[in-house]
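Revision sheet: structure tokens.
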Amino acid sequence: MAQNDQADAAAEAGPPLRVLIVDNDAAHAHAMTESLEKVGYQCFTATSGPEGADLVSKDTFDIVITDMVMNDVDGMELLGQAKEALPDSEVIMVTGHATVPKAVEAMQHGAFSFLEKPITPKSLRAVTDKAADAVRLKQTNFALNQRLDERFGFEGIIYASSRMKAVIDRLKRIAPTDATVLITGENGTGKELIAQALHQNSPRKGKPLVALNVGAIAENLVESELFGHVKGAFTDALNDRVGKFEYANGGTLFLDEVGDMPLATQIKLLRVLEEHQITRVGDNKAIKVNVRLISATNCNLEESIERSEFRNDLYFRLKVVTVEVPPLRDRREDVVPLTDHFRKQFSKHHHKIIKSISPTVTRKFFSYDWPGNVRQLRNAIETMVVLDTDGILDVDDLPPELVSAEESAPASGEGSSWLIGRPMKEIEKWAVEETLKLTNGNREEAAKMLGIGARTLYRRLEDYGGEVGQN
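Predicted:
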């Protein structure tokens, strides 16, 4: 009954923790595995030091339980490797009576605790539970740290709009899981940045994030790039080559423009996602991989399926969770904070002092549709920083496509046609409200753009009862 209670408690604490057990004595390793699996741990077994070291380098584990004395790679060496590759994990050393002093030394080097042989199931579970508590505390602190400084974005994503806030909220729910993610959106919206945020806020953050733009690879080389090849597999295969899946093992693989993947490769990718193993081109040996897959596309995959250019079964395997990144024209509130972010970034990069951006340019940026999205905005700001001579980004610094662009008042809600025939006070209030949105709530900047003093704007806001610009 007590054993069931322990299992129930582990289940309530969240997903089962991953435990790696390394011991030269296979029977002893399997006995420990069986004992911990009964109380809810997810266990993996290695029966040699080198096998344990290989798993540590390629996979993710929360707890490592290793024998002190092993051939080739001993417990102390494995401890060092685990602390480097899995900094958030805890390591428990297993020792005989003669090597207890060595185990104490191991604790001084970062081991969580040690178990002296012979080990009883009760003592094994007790020490492992304490290590699990320490791991979960780290995970809780990690989750809390994720919430800090959200005002400036989620791991480098700059935003102020409600549309992007909804995206970030969705990312925060997805990131801690291992779910396969499909990111959709137009070119230049920042899909790769979204993928980086997912990886950096996941338990795999200490492992590689490997990116591959499928559309930039020749069709006949995509399979080799993904899965690798062996020497002689084709004419130019002069040596063995490791593919992106192997490089990303234990981490995350980001496939951009996945809709451009050849059909033959799509079949093999589907098999990898189902079987968690790859086979290099020209080889028959299967290699196990543990990779989280994040894909991105700017095309409509459902239309590609109708044209028989994309497999329906792979599509549903890729889109376990979807994240749609809205175009910049649909989240204009992000233009001002992004502009200021890029101004600071490129001022530093090009060693120039750029104090501000003129209200005319800010207004033009806000009204422009940005067909190239955030990438186009970023490039425009860098161009202006490079060309600027007076420390203020103004109309004379604009790139050609923005010089000729006409300003228009972007619609807000039902648009501004309802203002016709309205009292001047309502029209004035609307103008103040829209300008505050444009400046992301910066009242001094809004006053400049409206051509009034800051005190006058404050008085106007008091007249409106403080209901404008408070969101």
